[in-house]
Amino acid sequence: MSGRLEGKVAVITGAASGFGAGAAKRFVEEGAKVILGDIQDDAGSRIAEELGQSAIYVHCDVTQEEEVASMVDAALDNFGQLDVMYNNAGVVGAVGPIATTPAEEWNRTVDIHLNGCFYGCKHAARVMIPRGMGSIVSMSSTAGINGGLGPHAYTAAKHAIIGITKSVACELAQHGIRANCISPAGMATPMVAATFGDHTDLEATREALAQASPLKGRPGLPEDVVNAALWLASDESGYTTGLTLTTDAGQTIGSSNGTPFHEYQPFMAEAGKRGV
Prior knowledge:
The chain has helices at residues 18-29, 41-51, 65-79, 103-128, 152-172, 190-196, 202-212, 222-233, and strands at 9-13, 33-38, 55-59, 84-87, 134-139, 177-184, 244-247. It has a single domain (9-272), classed as Rossmann fold (3-Layer(aba) Sandwich), CATH 3.40.50. The model has no long low-confidence stretch (mean pLDDT 93). The protein has a seven-stranded parallel beta sheet, with helices on both faces. Strand 2 (33-38), helix 2 (41-51) and strand 3 (55-59) form a beta-alpha-beta unit. The chain is of the alpha/beta class.
């Protein structure tokens, strides 16, 4: 299938690397015009140049509301409309025990993830409501579903993104606007590779993730998240809103390497009795 976003205009934050860069390329391949936003100006400009007339790079720090608003306005000024807002920008952020987490690092992590998502939702709604249509896609995480999977500030912010997605979905449904989020597990991206020690060593990251994956030998890949974002951005998900879509090989439902029930055992009844 091709042309799944034909005629649509998308804004993507954090578009200079990782999921955002992958989504920008895939969205353009599927017929969309794209505004790429990031603070990595060289990388973002290079990607936009590679994508040609269908893409424009705009410097955007998602902690600055006026810069997010300008990104949205750039979509209208250059392409005449906004159909998809992909709130993708993120960092690992503050790492360490709760008792030693610096407040400045906590606040910066929450600012990037949660406030950046809020600004994206706010300004997307501003221009989508008059048209009566649109899709807002935000990035949460498996750490936004289960505890113990990410650092404290990251986990708190990702839980909050699921909450604001549901709340915004309820409000904006009456305007024909959908809001959904994606919750990936650790995927083979430079950000995850950095947690293993080297953000450039993606091969070692893929091998480590493959060994830990509930799906035997299958690591999580950036394209898994990009495919999820494409579906939520497209009209194929036109009756879906308020969803937290996981790309995690079932980790958040308890799937792991193997199961405690490897072979048949007689029916287990009360007080250790066996048999029906």
